[in-house]
Write a structure and sequence with these properties.
This protein has about 400 residues and is α/β, with parallel strands linked by helices. It contains twelve helices and 13 strands. Strands 1, 2, 3, 4, 5, 6, 7, 8 and 9 form a nine-stranded mixed β-sheet that branches. Strand 1 and strand 2 form a beta hairpin. Helix 10 packs across helix 11. The longest helix has 30 residues. It starts with a helix and ends in an 18-residue tail after the last strand.
């Protein structure tokens, strides 16, 4: 009886092995082409997809000769570019020219060409959000001109140009737009999507020895639903990111309250809130911006920064932020009619009954919404030395 009891667990364990299928669907690393980034363009009626594929054997230390190349001086990636009538068709065509299986799960950036963005990104998003290999956390970026040209830059500080674009996005914003948040904005009420803009630049002036191409973020791409309606230059774009409370430790240059020169104030711990009001059918939104400021550079002849002068400095930074934010908001309101700050969404969330009354007319109402900007900045530190260095007391301008 004891012998039978001991055999029973062994028999059960042996039976369980029948249901174990082993590694029947395994894929060897040597049989996989890892896509690090993708650039998608529109060429006439055709799509062009350009895949940046990692070459593990060349992935040495960054900074070597070549586009983030390895220790041998060769690039740590190569480009595979194809055209087809559909975006899915470009993948099928690309696989025909590749001995390894294309694998998208490691892709973290998606560059969208300007022409494609203006034509509409809905067909592209349908594939990217439906196919399970695509990450919703990937960062979409609009490029000035062709996307594949940005993907094919040298950008030697990182191993892959696509990875450099990603790092730039995180330096620019605390929470960069992901594929998920971008798609949500297209499908949501009371908010329009936006994305960062990337372009190709030279790392040194033309004619210098060993000049290379590099990547720069220089504005915002503004959408109405899935179509690009315009690109905002860097200065007003930075002001809009500030108004959203998404700026990552930005520095603001202000004119000296008196005298000549400029001062630079770094804003830490910044955030903003939207407070909508609807009175007799008239909509207004107050944007309250809060931050702590640190004086990081004084290139002026202004003051010892005592109590009265600190008050003038605070007034100057408040006025500068107010003017810049109002300029940026006026641009998206009047020129593009795009609600990228989500004013309509703030009404939807805070005043749902009022939103129900105006939701069908929001596109007509939005350009006339009164926007009040209220910056609140406390300058917490002016550095070790109060007065400008290199100036005598007689040269310093006081209040």
């Amino acid at each position: 009886m004891v012998f039978i009891c001991k055999r029973r667990p062994i028999a059960i364990m042996l039976l369980c092995t029948v249901f174990l299928s082993g590694c029947w669907d395994r894929k060897e690393i040597n049989d996989i082409a890892f896509v690090i980034g993708i650039a998608i363009d529109k060429e006439g009626d055709d799509y062009r997809s350009s895949l940046q594929i990692a070459l593990p054997g060349q992935s040495g230390a960054s900074g070597s000769t070549g586009g983030g190349g390895g220790t041998t001086g060769d690039k740590s990636w190569f480009m595979l570019s194809n055209t087809a009538k559909t975006l899915r068709g470009t993948t099928i065509e690309g696989q025909k020219a590749l001995s390894r299986t294309i694998y998208y799960a490691h892709r973290r950036t998606l560059l969208i060409g300007e022409e494609l963005a203006r034509d509409g990104v809905a067909p592209m998003l349908d594939l990217l959000t439906r196919y399970p290999m695509n990450r919703f956390s990937a960062l979409p970026i609009v490029t000035r001109g062709r996307a594949y040209k940005v993907m094919d830059t040298d950008a030697q500080i990182e191993k892959f140009p696509s990875e450099m674009v990603r790092e730039l996005c995180f330096l620019n914003m605390r929470k960069p737009r992901s594929l998920k948040t971008f798609t949500d904005a297209i499908l949501s009420e009371g908010v329009d999507p936006f994305l960062p803009v990337a372009s190709v630049v030279e790392n040194v002036p033309k004619g210098w020895k060993d000049s290379k191409t590099n990547i720069k973020l220089d504005g915002l791409a503004v959408f109405k639903k899935d179509k690009l309606v315009g690109m905002i230059d860097k200065a007003p774009a930075d002001a809009l990111i500030l108004a959203m409370g998404e700026a990552n430790a930005p520095e603001v240059m202000i004119k000296a309250p008196r005298g000549d020169g400029d001062l630079f104030i770094k804003l830490n711990e910044s955030f903003s809130s939207l407070f909508p009001r609807v009175v007799n059918g008239k909509v207004s939104v107050t944007i309250r911006f809060f931050a702590k400021g640190v004086l990081v550079d004084n290139e002026s002849d202004y003051g010892n920064l005592r109590d009265n002068e600190m008050k003038s400095l605070n007034d100057a930074i408040h006025q500068k932020l107010k003017d810049d934010m109002e300029e940026g908001i006026g641009l998206v309101q009047q020129k593009y009619h795009a609600d990228i700050l989500g004013m309509g969404r703030s009404i939807h969330q805070n005043l749902p009954k009022e939103w129900h009354k105006i939701r069908n007319r929001w596109d007509d109402i939005y350009p006339d919404v009164e926007v009040v900007v209220e910056p609140h900045v406390m300058i917490a530190n002016v550095g070790v030395v109060n007065k400008p260095i290199g100036l005598s007391e007689e040269e310093i301008v006081h209040d």
